[in-house]
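The passage that follows is intended for readers who have already worked through the single-chain material. We present the inputs for a multi-component assembly, then the predicted structure in tokenized form, and finally a short commentary. You are encouraged to pause after the input and sketch how you expect the pieces to fit together before reading on.
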Amino acid sequence: MESQAVTDIQTTDTVAAPTGRNAPAEKVKIDAEAVNVHYGDTHAIKDVSIGILDKTVTAFIGPSGCGKSTFLRCLNRMNDTIDICRVTGDILLDGKDIYDPQIDPVQLRARVGMVFQKPNPFPKSIYDNVSYGPRIHGLANNKAELDEIVETSLRRAAIWNEVKDRLDAPGTGLSGGQQQRLCIARAIATQPEVLLMDEPCSALDPIATAQVEDLINELRETYAVVIVTHSMQQAARVSQKTAFFHLGVMPEYDDTEKIFSSPSDRRTQDYITGRFG
Amino acid sequence: MTDISVDWTSPAIGERIKKRHRADLWLKGGGMAALGFALLMLFILVSSLVSTGADAFRQTHVTLDFEVTEARVAADDIFRGNFRAIVNDAIEARFPEVTSRAEKRLLTNIPSNGAQTALRDAVIADPSLIGRTVTLTVPVSDPYDQMMKGLIKRDTPEANRRLKDNEIAWFDQLQAAGQVSKPINWALLRSADSRFPELAGLKGALWGSFYALLVCFLISFPVGIAAAVYLEEFAPKNRLTDIIEININNLAAVPSVVFGLLALAVFIGWFGMPRSAPLVGGLTLSLMTLPTIIIATRAALKGVPPSIREAALGVGASKHQVVLTHVLPLAMPGILTGTIIGLAQALGETAPLLLIGMNAFITAAPDSLFQPATALPTQIFIWADSPERGFVSRTSAAILVLLTFLIAMNAIAVILRRRLEKRW
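Having made your guess, compare it with the prediction:
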């Protein structure tokens, strides 16, 4: 039954991501309005508004330093940890402002999971890596439930078969691609609603990248996935929506197919045709 | 636009490359020379300490028959017994041919003052010895010990010698009879300080140093880590925290004698804590160890990769969870190394302890934090200051003991770092 899921993933790569095809039942999960971010005196994000759809992969593309990672980190308030960073504007998750004083960023980050550029498993066992989030949030009542969460998360991250016999082994001993999938398992173990991925494949080889991309396609069934990527091919492969960032503004946000075939903004066209970036 | 053409085979370029290689060699050679110089100095230090200190690890003893008569020791009050007289009787009985009063007095100088104490302890331990003859091996007094170790030379003219010809002759008789031995000087570690070098030991100093370091550790370790965690993880970056940071760094460079004066004024003067007590010593040392631990801990915390913090924050860990379960364990090897190095510094610190009176002459090891004691470095100071020749070698021996502890502590730091270090 569970091995079914794994074979499914292996077959999906031939199907390729349904780029462009309007995903059914579009519901806005995150609604950002006129977001501005300042780092000290630097105006990093200027008036960005975007509606991120549920059960959809949204790609953020753009040249280095354009603010796409900064914007991504606004969505789970990771920028709070930087003293000089100031965020204004509204970011609504299911209609609720995440910068509202009543919202606790600690809880928000469990609902909006994040996967980082460099695989960063804790220097603890594979089991502890995945069970850490559920444990601190009290998601499991007993050991059996925790075991189940760990197994489900590892299965969903398509790494269960590789690690099920060595859950006590250190997570840092895995290969780069496995580590990144472990980090994805760790992120989905807290049952998030949104999954943010900051260039999740930039430190991986092509084979590991393909595995993670397949996985992203799978995860779309359950979550709203936002992925920052430098690779336009990757954006085209995995996403249904693409936002183009340039010098802190977002000139264009549309269906991925539209962006890559007939962009309406000149800067987008220059970027995807390789004129700069 | 001009093309720059380079002839890589030209002699000028060849010469340049040679010059650069020569410079490499100079740099490397300079480094090796510096290292060699440092090692040579270390070798000279240790070898001179060993050559003078080795003598102190053996002590000349003499074996005599002591007649513990009831006239000298009353069974119901052993402690008040006249053991001095018993010892004098014993040595006089050993040389019946010596009859003059002056010579008899010289004879009684052969056994150390510690002989009567050793005899008393033996009788207290076993009162049935009263009325019997006890054979005991007791330390000889310092001049005879010096002679055995070759420090008083027989070929020195008698007038310039501490031991006269007749004294040497008596001792030679004892030696010929096999009554003189030179066992390992356990008293060096088992006895407290004494006026007589042959009896003086480091027990008091070792306990004093142990108690002081215990206090120092118990205060500076938790306080130092807490302060460093706050400064590194929680404190906002502003003028106030900048000033605090600068002050902590400066504190680490304040001469230790200043801390001693501070402790004298505050701990002993205001708070009325006991003078010479390891408690005050430990508090003083913790003032000096704190900046070291704070700086080491902050460096260790900075060394934890930000990706680990991000990972923990990303799954919704709160600040204390990030710090306690992820950052601190990863920083622990560095923190422990810094702490042990700080404690090792504290162990060798002398000046502040002199000011709070831990250089007193104390002949009993402390039983608690509040009793007067010396510490290893102050004991070295006291002995180095003493005129008796026997203290020369004991000073070196005490330095060797101190160095042994320092090396042991640094070795522990290395082992802990190896054990706890995790890769990520």
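Commentary: The CA atoms of residues 153 and 188 of chain A lie 6 Å apart. The beta strands of chain A are 28-39, 42-53, 57-61, 85-93, 96-97, 112-115, 194-198, 224-228, 241-246, 249-255. How closely did your sketch match?
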